[in-house]
Specification:
heterodimer; A: 393 residues; alpha/beta; 5-stranded parallel beta sheet; 12 helices; B: 295 residues; mainly alpha; ABC transporter involved in vitamin B12 uptake, BtuC; two-stranded antiparallel sheet; two-stranded antiparallel ribbon; 4 strands
Chain lengths: 393, 295
């Protein structure tokens, strides 16, 4: 056993050394080094690769414009292969490389693994897309060094309430909540608070259990109420069934149904009994290229041009791409505002950023370093996204 | 009042499903005193068979329903011959544990073959809503109720009017005596399993259509509720299972519809609470005969 262990250690050391020597170690005086720790291979490389592309695009753009305070930005990119041990190893290497902050990772799991290390070494770790509420936390307090560019799940309740009372002009709403899901209960709670604050009234809150498949009784009871919008706070697994069964319940055939990003699932139409049942359905998400916002349109174009030139294939930006692009620019802005490359100064400047004008909307941080920003409300017509509206918190 | 009537319709649709499954429990129990806990899985198997018949074999709905019933009846027969028949002389506990084992086996094999995700059941009918002076009935609810009633009449006819039915009733009353009267007990038991399984499969196909989805664990909760329905009606009694099924369905719909945020999520708990009350107050169930077991 001991022999095996020492063999393993030797192996790891050798592996670490070779990886190190292949990383960019040379010192260039007038560059700002920013570390990137992403899932570039492995199961979730589909998350990591678009984020890397976005980081590289943002870096190329800022360098073309003369860099930050006259210094060029240099990315030091390591692949964590969706492996926590590797993510930690990468972070140690990035610290040795002398980076001023770390962008990544794409997933909550990897970010959670590296956040404590970044904190201990006084280095910002900025995830574009880790939505787990624990990512920016250190126990019950905020981790001062961890930030995210995306909103966390329950926050969508607020945006959805604004969308319901504003864009849909609803005065009365019914909320359906999965009593076995924290995601659902939090969303419902925040939606109800905000909708009431907007002057609306939640006329009924109907609960169901996670494993329920028959919602007819609840829906029949809901149909007797007078209301304009039905908020289904759940994932597609249950929401799809609810949409399908609502459409065959008298009185609910065409009522507006809204929901969180849990609706964004290829199975939604099938679960609802076919795409024809999925009209007048809206859900919130981080980003959509359907938006007619000029900044979004410009980003779609510039990203396609950048990826075509660099990788030979024009990519359409996903939510991850857009969030990563915003994260990179927020960090640049923080370094610029700090007038320093001292990690602590960068941290303070990042925390102080307010209403940063990004492609996913105006971004600020709340006291737990979660992004406070608009969401994109996607409208589904016959199961197909047809429209995206930007809704402010 | 109208909402109440609408909830009654919801309850009857769901109750039809429970009643069909409960019939299988009660018939098998009546004839060999075995609580066939794999019965919920036959219901699940039937739903998958119906789905595949529609999507892969491209059968029209009613042929797919019959196909699912036949295939599931065969599965029921195989299970009876392979798993239960060799244990007929063993203790009841051995047979009960085997039934639970079969239940897990069927679930896991289905998860392995069909995947453990939810699949969408193809929607073969355009759903229409009929408005009868405020009472609104969905075409699928009519279909479920109609198919259930037809199957129940068919079952009553078989049990009461045919030679096979007489044999089934005879074996249920006294197995040894019916052997002496020239009844082929083994075949009668097998046919009972086939009929019970076919009814469960029909319920599975109908629920697949109604809830738009099938998944490998879908038989567990309805199986248990149908068992409660069978006990409520008096296990061993065919009319009891029908009444029990409808009663459970109605109760669920009413709790979900009127329970408010407080009780609605616990509609299943209410059903199980009912089981406990029935067992305490009238252990033989609504229509059950209180037969003293000879020790």
């Amino acid at each position: 056993m001991k022999k095996l262990l020492s063999l393993l250690v030797a192996f790891l050391v050798i592996g670490g050394l070779t990886a190190c020597s292949s990383g960019s170690g040379e010192k260039v005086a007038e560059t700002i080094k920013i570390g990137v720790n992403l899932e570039l291979t492995g199961d979730v490389s589909v998350y990591g690769i678009p984020e890397r592309n976005a980081f590289e695009q943002a870096t190329a753009e800022i360098n073309a414009a003369g860099g930050i305070d006259g210094k060029l930005v240099e990315l030091v990119i390591y692949d964590n292969a969706y492996d926590q041990a590797k993510a930690v190893q990468n972070t140690e290497k990035l610290i040795e490389d002398g980076v001023v902050a770390i962008l990544g990772s794409a997933t909550s799991g990897m970010t959670l693994a590296i956040a404590p290390l970044a904190k201990d070494n006084g280095l910002v770790v900025f995830t574009p897309s880790g939505t787990n509420s624990a990512v920016t936390m250190d126990g019950t307090n905020v981790n001062p060094w961890a930030f995210r560019a995306c909103f966390i799940d329950p926050f969508q309740g607020q945006v959805l309430a604004n969308f319901a009372s504003g864009d849909l002009g609803a005065k009365n709403a019914v909320v359906m909540v999965n009593s076995g899901s924290e995601y659902s209960k939090e969303l419902a709670r925040i939606f109800t608070e905000q909708f009431t604050a907007n002057g609306g009234k939640v006329v009924e809150t109907a609960s169901y259990a996670d494993a329920d498949t028959d919602y007819k009784a609840s829906l029949t009871s809901i149909a007797t109420k007078s209301f304009e919008v039905l908020f289904v706070a759940d994932y597609a697994k249950n929401a799809g069934l609810i949409i399908g069964q609502a459409r065959s319940t008298a009185g609910l055939e065409t009522v507006n149904i809204i929901g969180p990003d849990g609706f964004e699932d290829p199975a939604l139409n099938d679960l609802a009994g076919g795409a024809q049942n999925v009209s007048n359905v809206f859900f919130s998400t981080h980003f959509s290229t359907l938006s007619n916002d000029q900044q979004v349109a410009d980003f779609v174009k510039s990203h396609a041009a950048f990826t075509l030139e660099k990788y030979g294939k024009a990519e359409v930006p996903s939510a991850l791409t857009a969030l990563a692009y915003d994260a990179a620019y927020m960090l640049f802005k923080a370094i610029d505002n700090a007038d320093s490359t001292d990690p602590a100064a960068i941290r303070d400047a990042l925390e102080a950023l307010e209403a940063f004008d990004g492609v996913t909307g105006d971004i600020s941080f709340d006291k737990f370093h979660n992004a406070v920003k608009p969401a994109f409300l996607i409208e589904l017509n016959n199961g197909v996204p047809v429209n995206a509206t930007i809704v402010n918190p | 009042m109208l909402e109440f009537l609408n909830q009654i319709i919801n309850g009857l649709s769901l109750g039809s499903i429970y009643a069909l499954v409960a019939l299988g429990y009660t018939m098998v129990y009546g004839i060999i005193r075995l609580i066939n806990f794999a019965h919920g899985e036959i219901y699940m198997f039937g739903a998958f068979a119906g789905m595949l018949a529609i999507t892969v074999l491209r059968l029209p709905f009613f042929l797919a329903l019959i196909f699912a019933m036949v295939v599931s009846a065969l599965l029921g027969v195989v299970i009876e011959r392979v798993a239960y028949k060799p244990l007929r002389k063993s203790t009841k506990t051995a047979a009960l544990i085997t039934a639970i084992g079969i239940s897990f086996l069927l679930q896991n094999v289905t998860a392995m073959v069909m995947g453990n995700n939810t699949s969408a059941f193809p929607q073969v009918f355009d759903q229409k809503v009929y408005d009868l002076g405020g009472i609104r009935i969905n075409s699928l609810q009519i279909l479920i109720f109609g198919v259930t009633i037809v199957l129940m009449f068919l079952l009553q006819f078989i049990v009461l009017k045919t030679k096979l039915g007489r044999a089934m009733r005879a074996v249920a009353v006294d197995k040894d005596a019916s052997v002496l009267m020239g009844v082929n007990v083994d075949n009668t038991i097998t046919i009972t399993f086939a009929i019970g399984s076919a009814l469960a499969a029909a319920a599975g196909v109908l629920i697949g259509l109604y809830h738009i989805r099938v998944v490998f664990w879908m038989g567990t909760a309805p199986g248990l509720k149908a068992f409660v329905a069978a006990v409520f009606g008096g296990i061993g009694s065919i009319p009891g299972a029908m009444i029990g099924g409808f009663a459970i369905g109605l109760m669920e719909a009413l709790v979900a519809g009127y329970g408010g945020t407080m009780w609605s999520p616990y509609r299943d708990a209410v059903v199980y609470l009912l089981l406990i009350i029935v067992l305490l107050v009238k252990p033989s169930g609504l229509l059950g005969k209180n037969v003293k077991e000879k020790v």
